[in-house]
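Sorry, explain these tokens?

___
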Amino acid sequence: MSTSKTTTLTGLLDAVNGRPVRRHPETGAYFVKASGGAHFWGRALDAVVFLVGYMVLAVIAAVVREAMMNSGSALVYNDGLWLTLYVVLWFVGLFAYGMIWGSAGSVGDAAAGMRSVRIKNGKTAGAWLGGWRAICWSFFPFFVVMLIASALSGGGDDTWDPKFAAIDRRSGIAQGQPPVPDPKAMAADQAAEAERRNLPNLYGQRPDARP
């Protein structure tokens, strides 16, 4: 079951960037989500890095095919075989990059100063789950649209997976600085307390409390 935003909010702000401080429910540790812009450009860089890597693999496969053609091999004329090879290279490469992303962190994570972690306990996905999460990207053609929506909303959620969030590793919290109270949250709490005190008191100022 996904963790709702209300269970992670603390009513505190990061001392460095002023963004809301949240809490991992299982550990109680504080964290700050990466900004929408950082999340967008980090994931966009990941896409570029993967595409460049895939193009290198595709070029190598084309060179191998050309070499086989010069040797007179019959396999070189099997277009279905080579198309299958390119598809396999796509998913294998994506899974391998996802394994790195889920364990050590991706190139986009490093450049944007963020890290994708589980909201409930702050742990990374791990190599195996990271690979499968990366595979899922290829089945979401509207991924870029969702990234843009995330950037515009200012959120650092990992787009469609509510169990994960991209945390800001450059925040004051990540650097060991204590959070500061959120004036808006304090004002809201004070207003709620004042409203509670003004409610009819059955045993106090208005014993009957009848309309």
